[in-house]
Specification:
By secondary structure, the protein is α/β, with parallel strands linked by helices. It folds into 2 domains: 68 residues; 91 residues, Rossmann fold (3-Layer(aba) Sandwich). The protein is 50% helix and 8% strand. It has 8 helices and 4 strands. The chain has a 4-stranded parallel β-sheet with strand order 3-2-1-4, with helices on both faces. Helix 1 runs antiparallel to helix 2, helix 2 runs antiparallel to helix 5 and helix 3 packs across helix 4. It starts with a helix and ends with a helix.
Length: 213
């Protein structure tokens, strides 16, 4: 069954042909009508395929994020959400986004929340970008340090005094500790690096540089 937009398209084409010819016998246009209907049916099938593809993409993103979330369990999620008490339309800043556990809990608590996700770790920023696809127009990913938060917020168009809450969950997490190549772990062999954003600042001293100075 054709949906309303497609029916309107058929009707407009039929009406245009009818007015141009001056013929009032509806029976002379079946081929034109059927051809248009067939094209719109094909369009509808393609649209359904596109929608199916989009839904599958979102399901895949959900699975990817759930896999990431399992790597790190955020602390005191219920307490954080209860303390912030998010209300519809409010704006929050998560200054230590990490793997997004607190951010997602806040967004699931109430609708129409805008949340600015700040982290200096490019790996965390990539997760924030991915999560923003699941929550379009709600998550604004920001890559930077605490000292850059004000400048990044101003660049994003946030006016002073408009934040309804700020969350800071300081320190390392399993995102860093479980990656031996980043040099945070005392349990796994790896270079003594310990830089949160060494890839962005290759000249920044590593922990090995500091220890051996």
């Amino acid at each position: 069954m054709l949906r309303y937009p497609y029916f309107c398209r058929i009707y407009k084409e039929f009406l245009s042909c009818w007015l141009e010819s001056g013929i009032f016998n509806l029976g002379v246009w079946p081929k034109k009508i059927h051809g248009t209907a067939q094209r719109n049916n094909e369009y509808e099938v393609q649209e359904q395929r596109d929608q199916t593809g989009t839904q599958e993409k979102h399901r895949s993103q959900d699975r990817d994020f759930e896999a990431i979330a399992k790597l790190h369990i955020p602390v005191m999620v219920d307490e954080v959400v209860r303390c912030l008490a998010p209300q519809k339309g409010q704006i929050f800043l998560d200054m230590t986004f990490g793997s997004g556990g607190h951010t997602r809990a806040i967004l699931q608590k109430e609708s129409d929340i805008t949340l600015y996700a700040l982290d200096r770790d490019p790996a965390a920023y990539a997760i924030a970008e991915q999560l923003s696809e699941l929550y379009p127009k709600q998550i604004r990913a920001m890559l930077g340090q605490f000292s850059q938060a004000e400048a990044l917020l101003m660049k994003a168009g946030v006016q002073p005094g408009t934040l309804d809450g700020v969350l800071l969950d300081l320190g390392c997490s399993s995102m860093q500790l479980d990656a031996p190549e980043r040099g945070f772990s005392l349990r796994k062999d790896g270079p003594l690096d310990m830089r949160m954003d060494g890839g962005r600042y290759p000249d920044m001293p590593t922990a090995a540089d500091v220890v051996n100075a």
